[in-house]
Design goal:
This protein has 8 helices and 16 strands. It has about 300 residues and is of the alpha+beta class. The protein folds into 2 domains: about 5-120, Rossmann fold; about 130-285, Tumour Suppressor Smad4 (Sandwich). The strands form 3 sheets. A 6-stranded antiparallel β-sheet has the order 6-5-16-13-8-9. Helix 2 (about 45-60) crosses helix 3.
Length: about 300
């Protein structure tokens, strides 16, 4: 695979002081590999449209996201709109790096750079959730409420998330949803309904044992009411990958779903709040992206 020139897309806000060290490592890596590359920085305003223009001008052989899940999603959106199927690489440097972790990309810079050198790609499905691209996970309910509150306050990172998690843990009540998948429709009361392209959250909690990024389908996961006092047990079980066996947990696979949001619960897509839509429509676009990932040993 031709791997030059490369465009690095850098989120200057994500990752804090570590970003300066990473840029120094990147310069040394470029000198060592004699790789032609350009670095483009996001601004937070019309970044997808601006990146489309840069892609047209630079014509890179690969695009590497330097940041967290939000930066990766931005790169994916620009490539999808430009209809360019060139590989996406990730140098994890954000407060949330869930997708990189699930793809097996190391969080440390030097090992992540070695993944890029391997030039090994895998195809990748993308979900469309009410018109928004979803690479990893979307959900309606408790977690989306935590993320909505998290985005509106100054305490960032895991401390901020945990603070809002504990508030929701004691306050949240199950909501009513109507789920139509294929010819079947059913009504449920759930704390969360998860739309899963991947298999686990950034915490390592596994919610979708069937998750594959290139299998041509996604999963709808329902988390119905459960004993709150047993939450530590259930969380440990989620880390071990056994939560799907619990009676309050269900998983269905499909290619298209419509969810009626009867209680106006909040929606989040890949960590970004999406309001409180009355209806959530999801469909899959198969193998429309490529990611640079470690070779299987």
């Amino acid at each position: 695979m031709q791997f030059s020139p490369v465009l690095f897309v850098l989120n200057p806000v994500s990752g804090g002081s570590r970003k300066r060290i990473l840029q120094q490592q990147l310069r040394r890596w470029g000198q060592k590999t004699s790789l032609r590359y350009t670095t483009w920085k996001t601004t937070g305003k019309n970044d997808v449209q601006k990146l489309q223009t840069v892609l047209k001008q630079k014509k890179p052989a690969a695009v590497i996201a330097i940041g967290g899940d939000g930066t990766v999603n931005l790169v994916a959106q620009a490539l999808l709109r430009s209809k360019k199927k060139i590989p996406i690489g990730i140098l994890p440097a954000g407060s949330a790096n869930a997708l990189a972790g699930e793809l097996g990309i190391p969080l440390q810079t030097q090992p992540a750079l070695r993944v890029l050198e391997e030039k090994n790609t895998t195809p990748f499905d993308v979900l469309e959730v009410n018109g928004a691209p979803c690479l990893h996970l979307a959900d309606i309910g408790a977690n989306a409420e935590i993320i909505r509150q998290f985005h509106g306050q100054s305490l960032r990172g895991w401390l901020g998330y945990l603070w809002h998690f504990w508030k929701q843990y004691f306050q949240h009540r199950a909501k009513k949803f109507e789920i139509q998948m294929g010819q079947e429709t059913h009504t449920t009361r759930a704390h969360m309904v998860i739309i899963a392209n991947g298999s686990q959250y950034g915490t390592g909690a596994q919610i979708n044992p069937h998750g594959e990024f290139h299998d041509g389908k996604f999963e709808v996961v329902e988390v119905r009411p459960f004993s709150r006092w047993k939450f530590p047990l259930y969380f440990f079980q989620a880390l071990r990958g056994g939560l799907h066996r619990r009676s309050f947990f269900s998983v269905q696979s499909g290619e298209k779903v419509e969810i009626q949001n009867r209680a106006s619960a909040p929606l989040q897509v890949d960590g970004e709040p999406q309001g409180r839509p009355e209806k959530i429509s999801v469909e899959i676009h198969k193998r429309v992206l490529q990611f640079l990932v470690p070779k299987k040993k």
